[in-house]
Every structure is written in C-alpha cells, then in structure tokens.
Amino acid sequence: MALGSPAARRRAAPRLLAALLGLHVFAIAFALEVSVGKTNTVMALNNSNVLLPCTFTTCIGFQDLVFTWYFNSTEMIYHGKIKSKASEPFLVGRNPRVEFVGSTTGKDNNISIVLKNVEFSDAGKYTCHVRNPKEKNAQHNATIFLTVVQKMVEADNTVTLIIVGVVGGLIGLLILFMLIKRVVLFIIKKTQDGKKECLVSSSGNDNTENGLAGSKAEQKAPPKA
C-alpha cells in the first residue's frame, strides 16, 4: 500500500500528533520563566528605598540575554544585558534613582533593582521583562505592585490576642480540673482504705473478746453439791 494513501495517512496522524505534543511538553519544561517572588505586592515608606525583586530561570542556559524593567508598562526604568552565565549584567540605560543589586554568576539569576527615595507618584505596576536569544528569542515577564505610604500601619492583633487568651484560659481550666479530679480521687481512695482498716480492726477485737470470755467460763469450777 502506498505511503501517501488515505489509509496510511490516517495511521500516521496519531503518531504525528503525539510527536507534536511531546515537543510542546519539552518546550514548556525548558521554557524561560521570570518570577518576582512569592508575593507580587510591596509596600514602602515615602522617601525610603525599596527593593523590587526579580529572578529568571532557563534550563538550556542563556546568551546575550536582555532584561528590562518597566514602570506602568510603558516607562523604561532599567535596561541591561548579560553576555553569558560567566559574566555579570552590564548597564544599557536606567533611571537615575534606580540601582541594580542583583547578580547572575551565582546560583540564582537575580536581576533585582532598588528604587531610591520613593515618592507617592512611584506607586504602581513594575514589570520585569526578560528575552533570551538562545531560546529562539523566548520572552517572559512578571509584575510587582508597589504601594507608597506615609507611615506603616501596625497590624491590629486584638482579635489574635483574645483568641490566644481564651484558648490559654480553657487549657488552664482543663489542667485545674484534672488536678482537682486527681486530688478528690486520692482523698476518696484514702478514706475507703481507712474504713476498711477500721472494719478489719473492729472485727479482730470482737473475735478476741469472745474468745477470752469463753475461756473464763470454761475455767470456772462448777458449784459443789
């Protein structure tokens, strides 16, 4: 049967589909990934410095990698390039208040930045974008949201303290109840043991007195006629 026949093509279709699916899974497993950490929100005090974290991972390495930080998706605040894993990033352009604090020669590919002298107008969305030519110019990004406040608000722990106090009180009452129970049981046991000793002692005294009385009666001589 010819390879180009409809029947042959129908048999080859599932294999081709499986091969394409395998390539897709392989591409996902080795895809470029960018992360800003476990949380994507940061709060900073006005006029303070704030760290904006960002790392990237790639299983096949990188060459001439380009990374860029954007403010509110449009304003570029830092632009850098990394020749290879053996070299640190070099600056292409940046905002004067932005400083690079990462490193890519260690275990983590850290491309974090610090924004200095934060103002209220700096609040917004910061995007860390990475492009890796070695992965056919694969691109990925992650976003972190910055909130600027005049002063940090202390968390209200009143409810937590109340719950801890109630739980502690209940545990204390339970321990006190168990102690009282043990003391009461101990007293009851001692009382019962004392009663048993009294009963045994009383019974022994009665038997002794009865025995002595009988002996005296037996020893008394009968009256003479």
SS elements, strand count: 12
| Number of contiguous helices | 2
Order of strands in the sheet with the most strands?
A: 2-12-11-5-6-7
Our measurement of the CA-to-CA distance between the termini, rounded to an integer number of angstroms, reads: 151 Å
Helix content: 25-40%
- Largest pleated sheet: 6 strands, mixed
Helix vs. strand class: alpha+beta
Order of helices and strands: HEEEEEEEEEEEEH
Question: What is the global morphology?
Answer: elongated
Percentage of residues in DSSP E strands? 25-35%
Spans of at least 5 consecutive residues with low confidence: 19-29
What would the average pLDDT be, to the nearest integer? 82
